[in-house]
Amino acid sequence: xxxxxFIVEDEARNRELLKSLAAEFCxxxxxxxxxxxxxxxxLQIDExxxxxxxxxxxxxxxxxxxxxxxxxHRNFQVIFTTAYDHYAIKAIKFSxxxxxxxPIDLEELQQAVDKAVQAIRRQQENRIDLLMQNLSxxxxxxxxxxxxxxxxxxxxxxxxxxxxxxxxxxxxFFLKDQHKxxxxxxxxxxxxxxxDHGFFRVHNSHIIHLRExxxxxxxxxxxxxxxxxxxxxxxxxxxDNFLQxxxxxxx
Length: 251
Description:
The chain contains 8 helices and 15 strands. It has 2 domains: 3-134, Response regulator (Rossmann fold, 3-Layer(aba) Sandwich), CATH 3.40.50; 143-248, CATH 2.40.50.1020. The longest helix is centred in the middle third of the chain and has 16 residues, at 106-121. The strands form 4 sheets. Strands 2-1-3-4-5 form a 5-stranded parallel β-sheet, with helices on both faces. The chain has a 5-stranded antiparallel β-sheet with strand order 10-9-8-12-11, with helices on one face. Strands 13-14-15 form a 3-stranded antiparallel β-sheet, with no helix packed on it. Helix 2 (38-48) crosses helix 3. The radius of gyration is 21 Å and the shape is elongated. A hairpin with a 4-residue loop joins strand 6 (144-148) and strand 7. The chain is α/β, with parallel strands linked by helices.
């Protein structure tokens, strides 16, 4: 079975290149339409009801987010294509939606299409609503993060997270209600994602939410006592940065 794909891209050369690459190297999909403007994209997506949409972010005028906000048909997996790595990309990552940086890398394209196809086959819901919610948050406000588990997907506000703990290739999230969520991603990926939102990696195995630190114990190398009473060791290499961040913390 082939899945219908749609391309939203305001530059003709990029549209044709992506269509050609998809036709040659992504046998699971068929590009059934393309659009160059926001109004055209909204009209065509609602009419064609594609399974996958390749969405340019920066368009003239408007953005791909304008398209997502106004389409009635949202039952598709979206793959963003963009030349920019900025705030919007962080919102996309939090929502666990795939994106490809331009110029398009063939391997990244194939991986993104494969993920989208697998999500459709598992009847996995898209994350467009979560993305739009995160984009509407002013910088510094509380995001929600999408966590894929063996049982499905959980959407968790950052304010509920106390700490993260590594266990090999897995990461466990410890939440305020004593709930734990294990995901099959390593801690490094979340370090990059959460560092601008009040989280700090104090140890190879631990990332903590600085607002959830209740006490600092200086003996035995140093520990942070968290709001769930857990005691998290602080690496000597991280201690100065940790103390500086705690001194700046506003509660």
